[in-house]
Amino acid sequence: MKKFAVTSLAAAMVLSIVVTGCGAPLPEVTESTETVPELGPASPKDDFYRYVNEERFKDVEFEYGTSTARAAFDQKLIDDQIEEIIDDVVAGSGYEKGSEEYIIKNAYDLYSAYDFENEPIPEELVELMDEIQNASSIEELMQIDAKLVRDYGLSGFLNVGPDVDPFDPTRRVMTFVPLNGVMGVSFQDMRDQLYAIDSVRDDAILILTVRGYDEDTAGKYGTELANIAIDLFSATDLEAFEDPMSFKYCSIYNKSQVDDVFTNVDIDAYLKEIGFDISKVDSYCVSDDDQLVALNAIFTEDNLNALKTWELGNLITQYGKYISPHYTQMAGYIGRDYSSDHDKAVKEISNVFESETDPIYVERHYSKEMDDALIGMCDDIRAGYREIISNATWLSQETRDELLRKLENIVYVTGMDLERHDTAEYKNLNTENYFKFCLSYHKISIKEQIDSFGEPVSRKDILMPMQMFNACYNPSFNNITITVAITNAPFFDVNADYYTNLGGLGMVIAHEMGHAFDSNCILFNSKGEYDPSWIKTEDMDTLIARNDKAVEYFESFVFFGVYHVDGEQTLGENYADLGAMECVSSLATTQEDREKLFESFATIWCQICTDEQIIDQVAYDVHSPAVIRVNAVCSTLDVFYETYDIQEGDGMYVAPENRISRWY
Predict the structure, then answer these.
(1) Rounded to an integer, what distance in angstroms lies between the CA atom of residue 292 and that of residue 261?
(2) Long-range contacts of residues 645-649, Cβ cutoff 8 Å, at least 24 apart
(3) Tens-digit pLDDT profile for residues 278-299
(4) Where are the alpha helices (DSSP H) in 333-433?
């Protein structure tokens, strides 16, 4: 079943932002308008994004339930590659115990054999639910909570665990990650939806009812839990939580400071119960002080029953597919999947065991030749940044020198850095049934995380699956991760022209490298330490002034004549795009090379979106919509004007005094 897009309306409305951003008037649309005139052939002078992609924009159809179409990269390609790996492994035999193939095959067979609707709730889970309900004190409940973290993969009431110290990225520090909700209801929903808090109470009542509580008692405990949720929500700094630069809210507490906050919980005993070596815990990272105080306040004996209800909810949510089918009242909480048994199993293995399919994916779809070409292009991009940063004389020499040190210190993480695991660690997995298999499998990774606390931090750690279509910059590690999945066409093709690749994946890499110097990550020094003070005051003033101009520039672009791009929200990503294009375009010296580069850049951002998707993206996304990422950026570059002979009056033209730059 497909949903058909009104192609002319979608195209005209989306493309109107380019005209608006450049100062030309929007076509008048009245309430009685039912159709929008078809657009004529696109010109690179008026709408470069549509000029490059207009063939793909013709006769657009949206698959049912989707909000984008004709995207340059199809996720289905990766899904098919993963499915092929799983099918091949399942068809084979004789694998070494504990190997990736051994785990995939056993997981597939055990999942396929498990009758989730009729198999009894695993005895371990029944015992855990009983143990939670029978807890007679906060101390006892916290011991159970620690066990759920250690053995069952829950995050726990306190959501505390090791993470990289933003002020000293050579070590991990015990970190309190702010809670973002109760019983699956987020604090954002509590802020934005009038009756969201009712869901906390209603879900609590449902859980208690199926566990044998009478209606009055369930209602009482559910109301108490809803009140706890309100207290935590009221104490939470949602602005800090939603800020992608949460580092600036972080503080380092010593042990005595944390003990002063947690008067109702023995933190040392809790962490020790989880399995951490307490002698290595000398400090904590905290990013929401008020929420931490409110969290301590809820751990009183008066709240014991409400907290037990919350713990039951967390356990049932984590293991819902084993528990919910056995309670008629929870039928609505189970998502129905009408795909074939094979497709269900493939989806399960892809989601739960991606660490096992990942190295096989790399071996099949990445090569030394590809890596050499990729690293060579990364080094060329680094050289481009070296040149433009060196010549950014609007910054002091001292600041430029530190930026250059940071540039030279960037490391790349590619598929070649991913290694298979030690089979000896996984050779004794419990293969009695799927539940026990998963439990024994996840306990290994949880123990590895616990044991890693106090160990040296590696800047070459793999931060995302290589089968994920993505690339990222980590400011603490000062590294760029480039996954194998993103090395597929049209982003990268080892047999393609260099400048086509440079405008594709090269632009993505330059974007990630540019994050090292964007309005947020520039606050990390060359060692990866969060330290805004490293920038001289006069340089910071200059940077802020340029930030303001960039915000104003991007906010001049409007969708549907109403929705302005949020210049503040998108500043970091826009700067990464802008700096990246200034860098890669400096590497192309001929007309032909520049055309290949610019057109490849526009190609990788090809997509058509529904109106609702565009509005949501403008409201909430830190990235500008695709057409802005192409046209608004290209319209700032002198070399683009030279390449396509852009003149005043053209749709892509922006007056020189209104153009912005990251480095020039």
Answers:
(1) 7
(2) 645/45, 646/45, 647/45
(3) 999 999 999 999 999 999 999 9
(4) 341-352, 354-365, 368-390, 397-409
Question: How far apart are the C-alpha atoms of 291 and 280, rounded to whole Å?
Answer: 25
Contact predicate 81/364, CB 8 Å: yes
* Residue from 535, 492, 482 nearest 513 by CA: 482
pLDDT at residue number 37: 57
Rounded Cα distance between 219 and 130, Å, is 20
What is the mean pLDDT of the segment spanning 554-575?
Answer: 94
Which CATH number fits the domain 1-73+489-664, given the four candidates 3.10.310.30, 3.90.1150.10, 3.40.390.10, 1.10.1380.10? Answer: 3.40.390.10
As a whole number of angstroms, the distance between CA 496 and CA 225 comes to 59
State which amino acid sits at residue 416. Answer: M
Contacts of 602 (CB under 8 A, 6+ apart): 48, 49, 51, 52, 53, 630
Crossing angle between the packed helical segments 434-452 and 100-113, to the nearest 10 degrees: 140
DSSP string, 7-75: HHHHHHHHHHHHHHHTTPPPPP--TT----PPP----TTT-HHHHHHHHHHTT-EEETT-SEES-SS-H
Cβ-contact 583, 514 below 8 angstroms:
yes
Lowest average pLDDT, out of 116-130, 276-290, 318-332, 592-606, goes to: 318-332
In whole angstroms, what is the distance from residue 560 CA to residue 594 CA? 32
Q: Regarding beta strands 185-186 and 471-474, do their DSSP bridges make them parallel or antiparallel, or are they unpaired?
A: unpaired
Q: Kindly report whether the global pTM for this prediction surpasses the value 0.85.
A: yes
Give 123-318's CATH code, choosing from 1.10.1380.10, 1.10.1660.10, 1.10.10.60, 3.40.50.410.
1.10.1380.10
